[in-house]
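U., I forgot to send this yesterday:
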Amino acid sequence: MANAIIPDARLRAAFSNQTANLGLGQTNVFGIVAQEAAYLKGEAWLEELLRYLEGNFARLSSFVAARLPELTLLPLEGTYLAWIDFHKLGMSDAELLDFCWKKAKLWLDEGTKFGSGGSGFMRMNIACPRSTLDEALARLEKAVRAR
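Result:
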């Protein structure tokens, strides 16, 4: 379930048309009940989640600063998806993707999926248990050191 609040009538109509064409916009009873529960009773859970995600980002930031100075971490912008700049490693985008998948054994999103400005970047999902993040960071560090 998701909500899109679009005050502009023209944009709202275009959005509605596009979601209908994609087969989106269908709801089910489970989604409706879950969304209602989230709005009515989910604030404490959300606050705890946000603190946990902040902790994950702090862990990622301190790890990169202390142990992977070849990489640069961008500040989060309202999400749990961290952008990491790999430019200093001097790899092409294809080499970077191969490096992350085959050497670090990490499935990160290549920045070029989001346009040419994403070249040299990878995007990491940090909405995971801290142990998973630590494992990913250890793999990344091992791969960078092996270069």
